[in-house]
Specification:
Layout: H1 2-22, H2 27-41, H3 57-63, H4 65-83, H5 85-91, H6 96-99, H7 102-124, H8 126-146, H9 150-164, H10 167-178
Helix pairs in contact: 1-2, 1-4, 2-4, 2-8, 4-10, 7-8, 7-9, 7-10, 8-9, 8-10
Length: about 180
């Protein structure tokens, strides 16, 4: 889990920088695409497929593919926010005082959003929470770049924190349940 979070955090600035250099207006759309890719896999997640026996390495990876992808997406989004969002905001002539706020807002909202997610995932199912969070993340990213209002990035960072921040604890819980 931690390794894939780290991989996402490491490679997202590299990929994001390349995409931003080639097509600046699409750099956050690619982030939405990464999150949306997870949505395509969630329907194949079988929450009832739990085996009490010990599993071989490949079997373990097959069972926890979705939660590992969620950890990767969370790391990738944080990597993009850390490395590319300030550059994007400065290129959009957003004052430096505003450009510094999205990452702390994301992190605070992410931490606050993690508090109720355990109870919500117990009530509505981990799969539903993960899927709903992914949709909110995709829609938020699309809306963030659609509005030409400097505060939309800050509001979007908070919504992303609340939504995508749930990936971390839900993915850990899913790994525990699936193994």
């Amino acid at each position: 889990h931690g390794a894939l979070f780290g991989v996402g955090f490491i490679i997202s600035p590299l990929i994001g920088t390349w995409v931003h250099a080639a097509w600046p207006q699409y750099s956050f759309a690619v982030g939405s695409g990464i999150i949306a890719a997870g949505l395509l896999l969630v329907p194949w997640l079988n929450e009832r497929n739990r085996t009490p026996q010990l599993l071989a390495g490949r079997q373990v990876l097959r069972k926890i593919t979705i939660p590992l992808q969620a950890a990767f997406i969370y790391g990738a989004l944080e990597g993009i926010l850390v490395s590319l969002l300030p550059v994007y905001l400065l290129q959009q002539a957003v004052p430096l005082a505003y450009a510094a706020w999205p990452l702390p807002l994301f992190m605070i909202a992410s931490g606050v959003g993690m508090l109720p997610v355990g109870r919500l995932s117990d009530r509505y199912g981990q799969r539903s929470i993960l899927q709903g969070s992914a949709w909110v993340g995709v829609i938020t990213l699309c809306l963030m770049v659609s509005f030409d209002w400097q505060h939309s990035i800050a509001v979007g960072a908070v919504l992303l924190g609340f939504s995508v921040g749930t990936y971390f604890p839900v993915a850990l819980a899913m790994i525990g349940n699936l193994l």
